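Annex B.
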Amino acid sequence: MSPAPGPRARLVTSAPARGRRRALDGGRLGRTRSARLDVPAAAKARAFTSGFSAGLPELHLLRLITLSTSGGRVLSENTYWRHRSPEAMRALGGLPDARLTVTALGRARKGDREEVQARVGNRGRAVAAMTRLSLREARGGDRVLPTLYSDNYLWLLPGESRTVTAAPAGLTVRAEPFNGSPVSAGA
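Glycoside hydrolase family 2 protein: predicted structure tokens.
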């Protein structure tokens, strides 16, 4: 039996790429860097660099919206924490509690599996760090494995939300930030 075909790779032309540095409270650090890229199918391209200048905090976030369509739909987004020394990572332990929400958006069939969509939001004033998603049984709350996620271990800035897809459906979606209490919604 051969594996199911994946998404078809194609040439991306004049795609916008952006990078922003953020403080742990979500505030901007410096200006947004941007570039337009032509990326051949299944290849990579260099857009810009983001140096670690002397004026930056010892620990900060680098949000790379690495690729968008010409219409503005984000194709790839990554958040990294950057630090000058291992000791600077201790600042993560001092983050204020994040305040998350999870809203089940519904189910959909994709091929031979049923998926659930949920929106995870940060309604607090602190960055929701490394928010881990998990699918749980509706009764008992046991974790369901294996689970496929469209995204996981999210960094959500204050006021930000993200829609995620998980399979299988019919369970509870749980979001648990490093710096806060877990929240769940039935799917």
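The chain has a mean pLDDT of 85. The chain is about 0% helix and 50% strand. Further annotation is deferred to the next reporting cycle.
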